[in-house]
Specification:
Blueprint: H1 2-13, H2 15-34, H3 38-70, H4 78-90, H5 112-115, H6 117-128, H7 130-155, H8 160-163, H9 166-178, H10 182-193, H11 198-276
Helix pairs in contact: 1-3, 2-3, 3-4, 6-11, 7-9, 7-11, 9-11
Amino acid sequence: MDGLRETLGNLVDHRVTQRFIVFVLFLNALTLGLDTAPSVMGEYGELIDNINTIIPIIFVIEVGSRFIARGSKFFKESWNVFDVVIISISFLPSGSAFSALRALRILRVLHVISLVPRMRHVVAAMIRSLPQIGSILALLIIISYISAVIVTHLYGEDYPELFGSIGRSMLTLFQLMTLEGWAAEVVRPVMETHPYSVFLFIPYMLMTAFAILNLFTAVLVDSMQILQQNYTYERTEQQTAKILTDEMVDVKADLLALTQEIRKLRGEIEDRSKGAD
């Protein structure tokens, strides 16, 4: 049994197998997307349906092999639990109330993150940045809420569609923050009756769109740099360990060859001693 687990583990973790699974994951995403196009389904519907039938079987074989190889450790990895849930959804009966859930099989393409090292680093950088991003987001919400209260009192009566309530004001301020139609749709119309409103809107946009939002980018870039340094350090350590291992193998081979030479010389000396006697 241990031999079978080791064989399956080596097979599942092999680079060729991993690349094949990545290919199947992208093929799964592609066919599920094509399944929404009536014109494509009208011409290639049978082929796409056959592929969508085979892909879950491949996923079952892959996850089953990993389960046998990992044993009780299988469910300690969050990606394994995620795969089991998504694959189980794939086999819900079509035509039932749960048929729409079968489309959630597209989520399994996220498993590529665990297979591609660079993607893992990007996700790790985002997760590592969550505390700082949370603080920045809280600051942004506070500033937006304070600004929403102010503009609702100042302009809510004249422009109810933009600032008629706290919710509408925050939505309008969010539009200002994204700089989407900020001048033509918000600032210029309000300035027609409130010319000094520009002294409120411009500082708000400078503070949010150009300052706070750039903090998100700065935090992510900083995390990426730290993870890249760690990744480079780990790669250097791995390369150093490989070099040392190769050198040890060479030294061992040289010592073995030297030992054989010594034994050969010792045998020749003993033969000569016996011949002299």
